[in-house]
Sequence to fold (138 residues):
Amino acid sequence: MAIYIKQIKSRVTKKDIFQIIRNSATQTKTIDLSDTIIQDLILREKDGSTRIAKHTVMPHVIADYVQKNMILIIRLDHPVQWLDKGKVQTIIVLLIRQNDSYLETFLEMCCDELFLKELSQAQYSVTDIQLLIDKKEK
Fold:
């Protein structure tokens, strides 16, 4: 499971965010460039909101074209209007090939409001998150 964090300082749109997700997943070889990740993320959102907290969403795709599980945390300096019409400042993207205990532990941590608040306020680095997951898994 790979974890990445991106801090976006400029103003972006939903369309920009989906491109950031696709570019990040392609650059990390999580998916191939030809994959339908953007369409799949939009379709998933149409099935029901992925909002997990007031300013946090968790768009996700489970697909065979995902080469390896990936968590991408995008922090926005400027909130963006999301597909459910609410403002979003933290986007936790899950690209999943298959479920594993590491992912399950991370999802359990996302149920904690304090963890989500600190995650959105840049309190955690990738190393911090990995250490927290490792600690909880034991």
